Amino acid sequence: METAIILTRIAQYLAAATLFGTPFFLLYAPSSLASAQGAGPPWARALAGIAALVVLLGSVIYFCAQTAMMAGDAAAATDPEILTGVLTDSAMGLAVLARMAAAVLALLVALLLKPGRPVWRLLTGLGAVALLSFAWTGHGAATEGAGGWVHLVADLLHLLAAGVWIGALAAFAILLARPARTTPQGAKALHEALDGFSGVGSAVVAVIVATGLVNSWFLVGPTRLAGLFSTPYGLLLLAKLAAFGGMVLLAARNRFAHTPALGRALAGPVEPSLRTLRTSVAIETALGLAVLVLVAILGMLEPVAAR
What we know:
Elements: H1 2-28, H2 43-71, H3 80-89, H4 91-112, H5 117-132, H6 148-177, H7 184-219, H8 232-265, H9 271-298
Helix pairs in contact: 1-2, 1-5, 1-6, 1-9, 2-4, 3-4, 4-5, 6-7, 6-9, 7-8, 8-9
């Protein structure tokens, strides 16, 4: 059951971040990426639908597995009475219910409504609901006392900032993989998108660092820093910080080196610059996936401060 919970948490994190972050990216991306009436690139609608479906299915499997683990009986995963009770009478159940409802609505929006800025706004809002629901099934909602709300708000902002980054990475990975990027117009649109994300990316990193420090204060504590090197939670947290640091370095290099290089190459062959960007974004995306895996596992472990 623990393996099922971890795997479904990973899938849900990735899908919810994509469902929130990619439509949000399309709202502030340059108009050259959009088709008529801001409909967006042709792949955006399908990506949103797939992300919503993964959130929905992942939530169902996660909820059943989590209920069975809480009950200490695998049969509870298929017991309607127990499942209904947990769904309506626990914070975890209500959070999952909100996540599933947001996923169903997002799937209907992606399938039935004509793509455009109103749809991207709807999907961004529904993706935010799905993403923020994780705060009520994690350590952020478990903090008691006066600092509980501080920890919860920091967790919420941390989730949103991470979603913006992951969603933009998903969009850039798809854009870089498309052959149309090698045309002058395609390369110019990609350069504008990368250049436009630079300011947003800086704000995202600042929010993640600030809220990460707040979360660490509650989950590790200033007097238990030694636990970072002697507990499973601490070691995995260090691994997460290392992966995040790698993402920041790659993002900085993309902003200050690779993106300007692509801009200079627009007058000539762009493939060498695109190849460099593909490699950088692929590594950054892999590190982002590693962070999500570590977050899913950390959510199952006892924090250093709780020992």
